[in-house]
Write a structure and sequence with these properties.
The chain is an alpha+beta fold. It folds into two domains: 50 residues, no CATH class; 101 residues, no CATH class. 29% of the residues lie in helices and 31% in strands. Strands 4, 5, 6 and 7 form a four-stranded antiparallel beta sheet that branches. The longest helix is centred in the last third of the chain and has 19 residues.
């Protein structure tokens, strides 16, 4: 008896991100269904991905970028990023870090008050969705990457690019 086994091809998406705050690291997030697997590697990861072009297909021009000035105001670090996708302006991202504290739940009220001081009522009283289940965890660089990916995804959906 001959049995034919077929493999169901599950679509997986790999997001590769770089952060100027960690220039020696490459961050990758593998999405498979509802599961996300994070990876932090060195710069050679980009070369590995280039070598794997026969295994995966790259979406055309899906590069999205946030660039802008960085300010230090006392214990706060504020980054204002102009978001572009395919060289088209999409919006502004504001990132604020309270440097003395690495536990989001311990600093959220202070961060919220600081943000509301210059952005007003546009700032929610609740922590961002991503942080809500991590308020008592130590904040890591991958947490920043996850939030950028979430925001970039919102920009893509707003323009119809998935």
């Amino acid at each position: 008896m001959l049995q034919l086994l077929t493999k169901l091809r599950v679509q997986r998406t790999v997001h590769v991100l770089h952060n100027s705050e960690q220039p020696a690291s490459v961050f990758a997030l593998l999405e498979s269904g509802n599961k996300i697997v994070p990876l932090i590697a060195d710069g050679l990861f980009d070369l590995l991905m280039m070598k794997m072009t026969s295994i995966y297909t790259s979406k055309k021009q899906t590069k999205i970028e946030s660039k802008g000035p960085r300010f230090e105001i006392g214990d706060f670090c504020v980054k204002l990023g102009s978001v572009t996708m395919s060289q088209n302006f999409k919006g502004i991202l504001v990132e604020v870090e309270y440097r003395p504290c690495v536990i989001p739940g311990s600093a959220w009220e202070l961060l919220r008050e600081f943000l509301q001081g210059f952005l007003g009522s546009a700032v929610s009283n609740q922590a961002p969705q991503y942080l809500q289940n991590r308020m008592n965890d130590i904040y890591q660089p991958m947490d920043t990457i996850q939030q950028y990916l979430e925001h970039f995804g919102q920009y893509r959906k707003a323009t119809g690019v998935i």
